[in-house]
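Annotated sample (chain length 148).
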Amino acid sequence: MGTRNRRSNRPTGARMTGDAAHVWREMRALMLEKHDTRRAVADATGMSFLRAKLLTKLLTGDRTITELAEILASDAPYVSLNVRELEKRELVLRTEDPEDRRRRIIGLTDTGRLLAEKARAIADAPPPEFTTVSAEDLAHLRRILRLP
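Output written by the structure step:
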């Protein structure tokens, strides 16, 4: 058995690292294997997860290609290519920026908004394993993850 910190009574050293690795491995499996929201979103929307994610990022308002690239941690040419494909499907519109005619503003069409909301609902739905977690445990998890 590993040693414990006298003040906190928490495991230290190898035991703590092993426990952390085990919990992380199980959380990762839950998120990426057992509850693959990326696949579910792609299947439900009929497009790649990135394109669906791009649509959801427009739910809060219109954006430029540069802003979308930053939000998506991607490069502008790749985002522009995906926006063109979404334009062809009439899910987004490009309009001229009234403050800078060289820039284009990307916004959702009504159909794009519906699809983005559908994608968001699927991605935000917690896995079944979370439905049995107590309010107290969820509060602990929020504290551990430093969530608001």
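Annotation: The chain has one domain: 13-126.
Annotation: The chain has a mean pLDDT of 89.
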